[in-house]
Amino acid sequence: MNNSPNPRDATLERLAAHAIAQERLLPDPPIPIVAAVSGGADSMALLHFLSSWARGEGCARAIVAAHVNHRLRGSASDEDASFVEAQASAWGATVEIEEAEISAAARGRAAEGAAIEAEARRARYAALGAVAARHGADRIVAAHTADDQAETVLLRLIRGAGLRGLGGMAPLARVHGVRVVRPFLALTRRQVQAYVARHDIPFREDATNAGTAAARNFVRQEILPRIETRLNPAARAALVRAAAAIRETDAYLECRAARAYARIVTDRAEGKIILDAPRLLDYPKPLRTYVFRCAVRELMGNLRDVSAVHLRALHQLAISRRGRGADLPGAMQARREGTRLILSRIRPRKDEPAARRTPSEA
Question: For residues 15 and 20, what is the distance between their CA atoms, to the nearest angstrom?
């Protein structure tokens, strides 16, 4: 049976509800639903939809509108916060206004017109995670759309991302340690705008979105429109389809690598993993990359800061027949000793209890 929505029913309500059901994006009651609400059209549509959806489910479901005030646009930032507070309250949602912890240096760069996307993003997710924790929620609902997905994939392609990055955003993912769900990811911005118009939903315009200092704005305002005009009018949809195919490939390789990893690890100790280098070379290079990721994740708890450069260094050690070494992010080292490829931590993981640390690691 085909459970996909009928194309003629491709409204926000139907597509978002379908995504929630298919991907199991939202927690069961009575856990509150915490939505990231900037005050823009997409996030206001999200808050309105979630409020309606919760009522339609026939259960008492608390909706929390979490707004992060970056204080980067003077009085306009405060006006955004006041707007979200008033409108969300009118829709029956609990409102949480958090101030983003952005360094003075970054604020100074922003005041001079520079983009500080990465720092603002980290601060935003830290604030959103704090709101979720206060309400006993394990996830944040975000209003990312298919258009956002296309922009993300193109940006990552230009920046040289690997397979995982080119898969774009997933409907359910972890961002800066915060679990994020995206029920609008299959929706275009035009579909969201149609919903906003149909329900007469008020929203705020961020004047900085019209500029092109930020990389995403540049791609949105300049690059994608030119690609659509000159090369492919359906370029955004093509990028979204490519991302979905890449995510499927990534999931397959993760599964294959987990089985291979179990056979390649010959020994492990506190802060150390030993791989059988000759056996590792029995596998194709793409799969070896994912095996390395398994080892790094086991040692460090995450893959943060591990880039293609570091993975290439591990490949070189795997094919080397002489003793060589490489320094990796997170105080980690790799070295080749005979047939063994040894990955080790110089310092303990931050989430590792002090009692477990050996004297050499303290």
Answer: 9
pLDDT along the chain (362 residues), means of 10: 50 93 89 95 97 79 92 85 96 94 70 70 92 96 97 94 92 92 96 96 86 87 96 97 96 96 94 94 95 92 82 90 79 90 79 38 26
* Orientation of helix 235-264 relative to helix 146-159, angle to 10°: 60
User: What class does CATH assign to 8-233?
Assistant: alpha beta
Please state, in angstroms and rounded to a whole number, the distance separating the CA atoms of residues 36 and 70: 13
- The strand pair at 332-337 and 325-328 is best described as antiparallel
Helices (H), 5-145: 12-23, 41-56, 75-90, 104-111, 117-134
Strand order in the sheet with 325-328: 265-269, 272-276, 340-345, 332-337, 325-328
Q: Which residues pair with 66 in a beta bridge?
A: 36, 96
* Cα distance between residue 264 and residue 293, in whole Å: 13
Rg (CA), the chain: 23
pTM of the full structure: 0.84
**Domain-wise residue ranges, the chain:** 8-233, 245-356
When the candidates are 3.40.640.10, 3.30.1330.60, 2.40.50.140, 3.30.465.60, the CATH number that belongs to 245-356 is 3.30.465.60
SS3 308: helix
Distance CA 344, CA 269 (A): 9
**Cβ(115)–Cβ(214) under 8 Å?**
yes
Do 49 and 16 form a contact (C-beta atoms < 8 A)? yes
Question: For every residue of 175-203, which 3-state class applies, written as one string?
Answer: ECCEEEECCCCCCCHHHHHHHHHHHCCCC
Dihedrals phi, psi of 65, to nearest 5 degrees: -95, 110
CB burial class (10 A; 0-12, 13-18, 19+) of residue 197?
exposed
What's the CA gap between 40 and 206, in Å, rounded? Answer: 7
Give CA–CA dist 167/362, Å, rounded.
Answer: 38
